[in-house]
Structures are given as structure tokens and as C-alpha cells.
Amino acid sequence: MTYRTFRIPVELRFRDLDAYGHVNHAEFFTFIETARVKLMEHELEQRIGPGAPLFVVVEASCRYKEFITLRRDVVIVIQVEQMKRASFDLLYTITDGAERVFAVARTTMVCLDSDTQRPTPIPERFLELLCEKEAQK
Predict the structure, then answer these.
(1) Closest Cα partner for 9 from 105, 73, 92?
(2) N or C: lower Cβ tally within 10 Å for the chain?
(3) Domains held by the chain: number
(4) What is the CATH number of the domain that holds 94?
(5) Element (H or E) spanning 45, and its range?
(6) Considering the chain, what percentage of its residues have pLDDT values greater than 90?
(7) pTM for the structure as a whole
(8) Between β-strands 101-112 and 87-95, what pairing exists: parallel, antiparallel or unpaired?
């Protein structure tokens, strides 16, 4: 199965920099969280409507490749890496919007029933949105 690729811009802030003048490593997780929230709220949830599934992060990792210095923004490329019954893995490539790759991160997301807080199968409508062809975006 082929999944859509999402490109989410994230603005850098001066406070993201550390004493060395580059983005602090912990901020990379803030960048992927910001991109994921934008994706869920703006790309997917608006098209699913009320009662959208509840997804939580159960694991996160990041491989740093290059420093980020203060620039206007970065682009987070998000792809589904693996899909299971009640969970999926997202791959994030943190880029300059062109060819530079600053980091590659992953999260494992679990779909929860909002009432019971227990894992539940990922809704079919959500899967359909992830599988749409990029041209329809």
C-alpha cells in the first residue's frame, strides 16, 4: 500500500537556538510534534469531521544529521512507514525544503478509544485519507 507524503512548514524561533547558535537537539521533537499536530488538525481532522480518532505517541526517536542555524523555517516531510491494526509509524524528514536533510525522526502512534483509553482499530476513513494520491491534495 502506498501512502501520501505530507510537507509541513515549521517556523524557527530565536529561542530554539542554544549557546552554540544552532537549534537545540530537543527542539527537533518540538518541530515534529508541531508538524504532526498541523497534519492531524488541518489536513486530516477537518476532512474526517467530529469524532476524529485519538492518536497518542508511544515511542519517538531522532537521528541528527546536520546542525540547523537560524533560518526562516524548515519543512517536515511526513510519511507513513508502517501501518498495523491499531498503530502506525510515522517517518519525519526535517529539511530545508530542498535537498538538505537535518534529521530523520520516527514516532509510533496508537489509536485510542476516547472513552475507554484502550487501543482500537484505526478508522477506515483515516486510512483512506492517508492513501490518497498526492495529486488530489
Answers:
(1) 73
(2) N
(3) 1
(4) 3.10.129.10
(5) none
(6) 54
(7) 0.87
(8) antiparallel
